[in-house]
């Protein structure tokens, strides 16, 4: 395990001890192939810090099924002891999101990965049946953080991140 991986694991353990909050937030992630665990972790840290959210409230990471074996995502989930929930492009495409991207639609077959995956994962906290709903309001899910894109100079890859929760669950902020 690298020094950075050890630091992530230790920090996550420490945060869980300090921030005993209900795990209710799903982080949707889209990323370029080869994006490092470090870049994904830094994106999550920055978004949660800027939005005054507890990282210990994360219940899981959600993405498109073609990223199920993406090394950076798999490593992050392992280090943080979080599940990685994946959805097909067909299911992701059925969700109307505030920030669709034509280029992503052409590349992976859906206009949204991060936002749609976060919404679907949060919705499934309360129900396993998604269809025929298509809008976020119908799913009773709200975005806490709409799509954000991260890159670090000198590091390969990019991360798109969104955070969602089921609307009937109260949020924990500090």
Which structural traits does this protein have?
174 residues; alpha/beta; globular; 7 helices; disordered C terminus
Beta content comes to 15-25%
Going across the major beta sheet, what is the strand order?
3-2-1-5-4
Secondary structure: helix percent = 25-40%
- What's the end-to-end separation, in Å? 32 Å
Provide structural commentary.
The chain is an alpha/beta fold. The chain has 7 helices and 5 strands, in the order H-E-H-E-H-E-H-H-H-H-E-E. The longest helix has 16 residues. The C terminus is likely disordered.
Secondary-structure map with pairings?
Layout: H1 3-18, E1 25-31, H2 37-50, E2 58-64, H3 71-80, E3 84-87, H4 89-93, H5 102-108, H6 114-123, H7 136-139, E4 141-150, E5 159-166
Parallel strand pairs: 1-2, 2-3
Antiparallel strand pairs: 1-5, 4-5
Helix pairs in contact: 1-3, 2-3
Sum this structure up briefly:
By secondary structure, the protein is α/β, with parallel strands linked by helices. It has seven helices and five strands.
């Amino acid at each position: 395990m690298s020094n950075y991986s050890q630091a992530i694991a230790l920090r996550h353990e420490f945060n869980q001890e300090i921030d005993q909050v209900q795990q209710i937030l799903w982080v949707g992630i889209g990323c370029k192939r080869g994006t490092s665990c470090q870049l994904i972790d830094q994106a999550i840290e920055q978004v949660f810090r800027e939005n005054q959210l507890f990282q210990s409230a994360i219940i899981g990471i959600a993405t498109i099924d073609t990223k199920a074996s993406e090394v950076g995502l798999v490593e992050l989930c392992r280090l943080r002891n979080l599940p990685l929930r994946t959805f097909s492009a067909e299911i992701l495409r059925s969700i109307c999101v505030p920030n669709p991207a034509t280029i992503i639609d052409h590349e992976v077959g859906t206009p949204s990965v991060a936002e749609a995956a976060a919404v679907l994962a949060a919705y499934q906290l309360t129900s396993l049946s998604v269809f025929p709903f298509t809008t976020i309001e119908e799913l009773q899910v709200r975005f806490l953080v709409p799509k954000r894109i991260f890159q670090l100079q000198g590091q390969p890859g990019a991360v798109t991140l969104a955070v969602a929760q089921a609307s009937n669950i109260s949020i924990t902020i500090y």
